[in-house]
Amino acid sequence: MGTTQLAPVPVPEPKYLHLRTVLSQALDSEFSVGEILPNERELAARFGVARATLRQALEQLELEGRLQRRRGVGTTVAPPRVGVAVGAPGDAWPGAADDGWEPLDSAPAVPPASVADTLGTDREEAVHTVRRSRVSHGQPVAAEVLYVPRTSVPGLSAIDAPTGPARARAVLRALNTLEPGHRENAVELGSAHVDDARELDRLPGAPVLIVTTRWVTGDRTAALSVATYRADTCRLTFGEAGDVRIHHGPTASHAS
Amino acid sequence: MGTTQLAPVPVPEPKYLHLRTVLSQALDSEFSVGEILPNERELAARFGVARATLRQALEQLELEGRLQRRRGVGTTVAPPRVGVAVGAPGDAWPGAADDGWEPLDSAPAVPPASVADTLGTDREEAVHTVRRSRVSHGQPVAAEVLYVPRTSVPGLSAIDAPTGPARARAVLRALNTLEPGHRENAVELGSAHVDDARELDRLPGAPVLIVTTRWVTGDRTAALSVATYRADTCRLTFGEAGDVRIHHGPTASHAS
DNA sequence: TAGTGGTCTAGACCACTGA
DNA sequence: CAGTGGTCTAGACCACTAG
To answer: I want to staple A83 with a disulfide (CB 3.0 to 4.6 A). Which of A7, A243, A255, B37 is the partner?
Structure first.
C-alpha cells in the first residue's frame, strides 16, 4: 500500500470503457431520468469514435441499468432499477393472494428433460404448465412457466376444457390447498428467448435473470417455476422488503 | 391457438441468433466440456459470416454460461454453472466458520455515499471495509467489499497497525460476537470494474451478478456487503442447498 | 417518410498466451 | 514466436417508430 501511484497504466484503457465512464458521469450530472440522449451517430461523431465503439459503451450502460434503448425511438436515461421481491415468506405457494403475478394460460405438456428430472416425473410424462406474467410499476418485468406434476394436484384431472387464464387459476388454487413446504431459489444470467423477449418487450437475446424456484414438500418437488426477469430494469430482493434502494452511485459496483 | 403455423416469419431471425442456435446444438451433440472450439476466424468462414457476427453469437453463448473465451488461448466449452449458496441460514454473520470466503484486507475508509446512507453513517465518516474473495472449485467466483460501521464493533479501535488479512479477520471475529439479526439480499446485473475484473480473472466490463446483503439488528444496518459474482460461471442459490443442479438443457431458458 | 437503433461486413491492429 | 481473442474503423442496409 506504500507504492507510488502515478501512471500505472500498462494497459491503456480501451476506448469504449473510457467512453462508458465519461458517459456515466455525464448521465449523473447533465441528464435527468427519462431524458433522451443525442442519437448514436451524433454521439459517435462528438466523441470522435466509430459508431460501433460508441455502441459498446452504450451496451455497458444499458447492462448496468443506466440507459434504455428502443429502436425507432432513441436512447433514454433509465430510472433506478425497481426492487422486485422474490420468494417472500408470505406466499408459501405460488398464486397466493395478490402477489403481482397474473395467470395467463395453462395446459398439460411434456416439460424439458431437465425439468422432468427435478420433478421426478417420467421424461415423456405431461405435467401441468402454467404461464404467468408479472407486472411492476406498469411495466412487464417477468415471464414465468410453472411446472406442476399431476400427482401434486390429483383432484384436477376433471378440468380439461377451458385452456386459458381460468384453468391457470384452477391449478394455482389447487396448489394452495396443499400443506406448504419450503422454497429453494436459484438465480443465474441468461438471454431472452424469442417468446420471453416479446412478453418482456425486449429484443431476443436481451440479458435476463433466470430465477428457478423449487417448492419442496417432504422430500419431493411439488412444483417448479422458471421465471425470466428483465435484467436491465429489475433488482431482485430476497428475504424481506421489496423496494429498499441500495447503491446506485456514480458507478455500478463499489467505488475504491 | 387455432391459427395456421407454417412460415410465420415476418422477421427473418437475425443471423447471429440463428448462429447461436446452431452452435448451441453443436455444443450439445459434438463437443464435450473443456473441449476447444475452432478459432473465430475459421468458424466465421465456415458459417459464411463476418467475424463480428460470429462473435455476437459467441457472446450470447458465453452470457448463457455455455462457452468460455480466453484471449491468447481460445474458446472452450464451459462446464455447467456451479451452484453457489448465498445467504445460507447457517452464517448469521459474515465470516462464520469455513464459509468459502477468504479475508484479504481491511482498512478504515469513507464508503460511497449510497452505502453511507443505508448504513446510517455520515457521508464523510470512515467505516471498516473488509475485502474478501470467494473461491469455489478452485476458481475465484466472487469479490466482496464489506462495510462495517465503527459503532457495530466498538471494541475494535485498538487495532490499527496490521492492515491486512489479520485485521480483516479481527473485524469479522468482532462481528460474530454480536447478537445476530436477519439478512436482506438483493441481486442485480452489473459489469465488472477493473479491480473486480482482475480479481475474478475476467476482462473489465464482463457481466457480473451484484449481491448486496444487509445485516439488520433491530432497526439499524449493522453491516453491508457488496459482492460481485462471475455471471458466466455462477448460479446463485438462496434458501438452502448449494449445488442442486436444475435446468441446463439445450437452451438457456425454458423450451416450449 | 424521416429518423432511430439493430444488424452486418471486410478489413486492420492490439494484447495476451504458450510453445 | 505464431496464434488466439479483444478492440476499432467506416461504411452499408434493415426494422421499427412516430409524425
So the answer is: A243
Cell numbers standing for residue B104: 484479504
Are B141 and B240 part of one and the same domain? yes
Residues 6+ apart with CB under 8 A from B19: B47, B49, B53, B54, B56, B57
Which residues of B in 4-43 have their CB below 7 Å from strand D's atoms? 10-12, 37, 39-42
Residue A21, number of CB atoms within 10 A of its CB: 16
Any B CB within 8 A of A211 CB: no
pLDDT digits (tens, 9 = 90+) for A143-182: 999 999 998 888 776 556 577 888 899 899 888 888 878 8
Helix (H, G, I), strand (E, B) or coil at A22: helix
Give the integer Cα–Cα distance in Å for A104 and A196: 13
Tell me, yes or no, whether A88 lies in a domain. no
Task: Provide, as residue numbers in chain B, all residues whose Cβ is less than 8 Å from the Cβ of A14.
Answer: 204
Same domain, B58 and B24: yes
In this structure, are A111 and A54 located in the same domain?
Answer: no
Distance in Å from D4's C1' to B36's CA comes to 12
pLDDT tier at A240, thresholds 50, 70, 90:
low
Nucleic strand C within 7 A of Cβ A15? no
Residues A90, A183 contacting (CB under 8 angstroms): no
- Shortest Cα distance from B204 to chain A (angstroms)? 8
The answer to whether residues A215 and A58 touch, using CB atoms and an 8 Å cutoff, is: no
B134, B218: one domain: yes
Q: Which nucleotides of strand C come closer than 7 angstroms to any CB of the protein?
A: 2-12, 15-18
Residues facing B140 on adjacent strands: B135
The domain of B140 spans 102-246
Q: What pLDDT is attached to residue B247? A: 39
On the question of pLDDT at B188 being above 80, the answer is yes
CA A173 to chain B, closest CA, distance in angstroms equals 23
Whether residues A153 and A69 fall in one domain:
no
Q: Determine, for residues A81 and B188 on separate chains, whether the beta-carbon distance falls below 8 Å.
A: yes
The answer on A165 and A215 residing in a single domain is: yes
Q: From the Cβ of A202, is strand C under 7 Å away?
A: no
Going by C-beta distance under 8 Å and a sequence separation of 6 or more, which residues neighbour residue A82? A136, A137, A139, A141, A233, A234, A235, A243
Residue B120, C-alpha cell as written in the block? 446510517
